[in-house]
Structure formats: C-alpha cells, structure tokens
Amino acid sequence: MKLSENAVKVLEKRYLEKDENGNLLEDCEGMFRRVAKAIASADAAYTDEKGLAVIEHEFYNMMANLEFLPNSPTLMNAGRPLGQLSACFVLPVEDTMEGIFESIKNAALIHKSGGGTGFSFSRLRAKGSAVNSTGGVASGPVSFMKVFNAATEAVKQGGTRRGANMGILRIDHPDIMEFISCKSDNSEITNFNLSVGITEDFMRAVEHNLEYELLDPRTKKPVAKLNAREVFDIIVEMAWENGEPGIIFLDRLNRDNVTPKLGEIESTNPCGEQPLLPYEACNLGSINLYNMMDDAHKGLDFEKLEYTVRKAVRFLDNVIEVNKYPLPEIDRMTRGTRKIGLGVMGWADTLCALGVAYNSQAAIDLADKVMSFINDTAQKASQNLAELKGVFPFYEDSIYAQKGIKMRNATTTTIAPTGTLSLIAGVSSGIEPIFAISYIRNVMDNSELVEVNPVFKEAALSGNFYSDELMKKIARVGTVKNMNEVPTNVQEIFVTAHDVLPEWHVKMQAAFQRHTDNAVSKTVNLSHDATTDDVREVFTLAYKTQCKGVTIYRDGSRDLQVLNIGKVK
Ligand code: CDP
C-alpha cells in the first residue's frame, strides 16, 4: 500500500483498532480488510459465499489502492462494536424545554460515535417572548446554542474526533441580528459553524433595497421589519471579520428535496454539504480523482471512473444496511430514504497533473464533464441496485415515484471537504485548490521539515528545477507566481487557494453543484486585504450561479489559523 508517513500516523492514532492499553490490534491493511468485510456482509442475502468474497475483495481494493474512501466514521467503526458509520446528521430542535434538551442528549450520542450534527434553531421562540408555564421570558436561540456548545465541548468523542455542529437560523427569525454577530468573539460557540438560512424573497428584497418581515416562529405573524440590504451588509461585514456566518439558500435546498411529503429541509450537516430532513443521517464517500487518470496522466480514465463509481454506490448503499444508528428515529428515517453522498477529492492535484489551471475555463469545463459523468453513473448504479434490492422504503413519497424512476437511494452525490480522507489518500482536499505548494512543518526537536506537494515535486524534478532551497523559498513566499526559478507555464498551472481569485472559487463550486444532488463543501479564500465589497460580490455570485450556500475565509482574519503559509520563518 502507498500510504504516506503522515497518513499512517493519523490512522494509527485515531482509526486503527486498539486494546485497552492502547496497543494496536490491526495495521492499515487490516483496517481496510475489516471495513471491506463488514460492508460487503450486507450483500449476503443477494449472493453466495463466492460472490460475497468477490465483492469484499473489490471493496478492499478500492480502498487499499486509495481510489475510494468512505467517510471517517465508517473507517473507524465498521466491523467494530460501536458500528456507527455516518458522518452527517440533522436533529430537530423543538420549541420546548424537553425538546431542546432531548436534542442535546441526542447530539452527545452522535458526537461520541464520530458523527457531526446540524440543527436549525428557527423553531425556537424569540428572546424575551413569554413562557406560559413559568410566566417568565424565553432565552432565545442564541443562548440555547451556548448550551449545545458546552455539551459538545464536554463530549470529546472518545478521543477520535472533535464534535462538530452546524447552527442555522432563518433570516426572518426575530433574533437574527443577535445570531449574525454571535461569533464576533472568537472564543464563543467554538464547536459550531453558523449559517444564516436565506430565502429567495430575502435576496429579492436585498436586490431592490426593500424591507422584509421578521416572523414569530410559532404564529408565523410578522413582529417587525428590517431593511434587507442593511441586514445583508452586516452578514457580509461579520463574514469579512472572521469567516462567520456563512449563508445557505434554504429555498434551493427544498427545491431539491426529493421527498417533500416527509417534511422540510431546515439544516445541513456541520460543513454544509449535506442537507437532511430532521433525524436523517447520511454516509459519505469520496473518489480520489488523482487515481482515476490514465497511465500517461493525459486525461481521466472514464472506464475506470465508471467502474469505481458503481462499486462506490454499492458500498455506500451497503453502509446504510450494516450501520448501527444511535436512535430509533434516525434508524427509521435513514433507512427510509437511503441517502448516500458520493463525491470527489484530489481535484486540484488532478488538474495540475493534467496541466490545467484551476482558475481557467478549461478547468470549469472539465469539472462539468467529470461531475456530470459521476452523477449520471451514480444514478444508474442506484437504479440497478433498485432492481436487485428494491427501491428506498419512502419511495412512494418521492419525486422519483411521480417520474416513474426506480431508485435505491433518494440522493447519490455530495462533495465533502475530505479533511482527513484527503490526508490519508495524500491528495488535495475535496474540490479545493492546492493550499500550499510547499510548507514548513516544525517537528518536535525544533527542526524544520519542508513538505512539498507531490505533483509539484514531480513537475519540478522532470523540469529540472527542483532544489531544497527553492522549496523552502516557495514555502516562505506562499506562491510560485512571478518566481523566476519556476517556468512560467508551471507558475500558471500550480496556483494555490490564494492565487485563485474569489470568482473562480465560486465558479468551480457552481460547476460541481450543477451535477450534485446534495451540496458542495467549499471555502472561498480571500486575501487578507480583501474588502467587504469583495465578500459581498462572492455572496452575490454564489446566489446568481445557483450555489446552495457559501462560506468565505479571509486570510489571517481568525486568530488561530492552523496552516499559515507564507508566514513561516
Ligand atoms: O475526511 P473525513 O471523512 O474525516 O470528513 P470530512 O469530509 O472532512 O467531513 C465530512 C463531514 O464529517 C462533515 O461535514 C461533518 O458532518 C463530519 N465531521 C465531524 O462531524 N467532525 C469532524 N471533526 C469532522 C467532520
């Protein structure tokens, strides 16, 4: 297996099975075998022993060759007693004390198993409104979010993963102004990503500089009015200041809700890529596009890609079957819609290897081509599975029943961030541009290690311009743009997240979104000296290009930044 030293370290620390004294009970290969066996077992009812062994072998190969990886909880928990395999959950928050604390308890159970939770707080009554039972006044969504946050802090997920949450409030909730600025102090609500749930009506009001109404969540009656453009500007200002809140377009999530009869989509998972109904969970998986290229690295091998997508869909559908859900309601909903989220990673590395600049129309065209191929193939694979294993149980309540298309899964595609998966596979994450071409890592004995993007290293070696000195210089500067030692054609292709203008970030997100059932995880990086106008433009472009949401980050705007390129001495 071709795992990097870093990948092995991460797997040993958090993924591999250990005894109570912390001794490893398996190696990385053993982990993939354990996962392949557990996931293939769902096919036992459909094939004989020989057939099952073939499926298990195919699953193992896909993972061991780093062609496809399921989300972290599947790698950690499959074939082990906990058995919780999903990364994404959405829980409802009812407007009662029982409901709120029930939700906190459920979130704790999910975090313990490595899953992340999303919540809409829009149903909670506004701060200061009456509480009948006590004659007192309500604390409002933001103060309850702090309780959710504290609970997350206390549950350290058994040391595997830090708890992650998404908190959403509708733009027409009376407490929206407090919500928008509640993270202006970085030390508050640290275990949440926040997104404002924006409606198309609101965006029209922004466009025409009109007022819009705030509604009492219980009666739906208007209680106040705000100027839409002013509110939008404050969201922009706060996002400029430290990257939060993001925005999500609620009406678009519901336009693509394939089971509208089952309820409304109010929230996504923590990183925004997976809209779900209350109590729904979803398991994700990502294809490593870098390993889908033909041998000569001239283009993508679409035959191999098709094969991998088909196997991956079968794999993810099986995950639903063998998954042990933390709550009976989640079990019912998740098995009912059987949503899966197949996506990609290593996109930027692939573009570099193919000699295509991320910030070019050619890259956008290729994104359209690749993702539409994956989406079509995944849908066909789900249809084939439906013939073999049956449609998803809530099929009759879905738009597919109206169309007469038999599907095994209510959704098939999602673009995840692949934070850890991309590290395991040793490629650029999700559809993000390369973050750094090289960077300096301080290792324990105070010495410095220069890490170089492997695709760049190859290009530098074959172009005869590789030197340790140069790699250090690139790490210091943070880009190869205008660097004389690097040939101009290489400068143009190896662009980093900061070289790429915000509009290209959004165009790339929009291209993948066009062919993705669920949503796309993407951060639009802005330079430190970007203005609030730049942020507003990004938000507006994301709206106009049919993205389902957008998150920005202005370099250096948060105090604690994990990777700080170009600033390392
Ligand atoms: O790469 P990996 O499978 O570890 O996860 P990811 O693609 O970076 O994140 C996918 C989803 O996993 C997120 O959107 C969250 O729902 C969940 N997650 C989490 O709950 N806690 C984390 N620390 C990281 C991710």
Task: Write up what this structure looks like.
Strands 1, 2, 3, 4, 5, 8, 11, 12, 15 and 16 form a ten-stranded mixed β-sheet that branches. Strands 6-7 form a two-stranded antiparallel ribbon. The chain has a two-stranded antiparallel ribbon with strand order 9-10. 42% of the residues lie in helices and 14% in strands. Helix 5 runs parallel beside helix 6, helix 9 (228-242) packs across helix 21 (532-544) and helix 11 crosses helix 14. It folds into three domains: 5-75 and 287-421, no CATH class; 88-268, Anaerobic Ribonucleotide-triphosphate Reductase Large Chain (Alpha-Beta Barrel); 436-495, no CATH class. With 569 residues, the protein is an alpha/beta fold. The chain has 21 helices and 16 strands. It is globular. A hairpin with a 6-residue loop joins strand 6 (211-215) and strand 7. The structure holds cytidine-5'-diphosphate.
Compute the number of helices.
21
CA distance, first residue to last residue: 35 Å
Give the tally of structural domains. Answer: 3
State the total count of DSSP E strands.
16
Ligand inventory reads: cytidine-5'-diphosphate
Question: Which class of secondary structure composition applies to the elements?
Answer: alpha/beta
Mean pLDDT across the residues is 95
Q: What's the helical proportion of residues?
A: 40-55%
Specify the overall morphology: globular
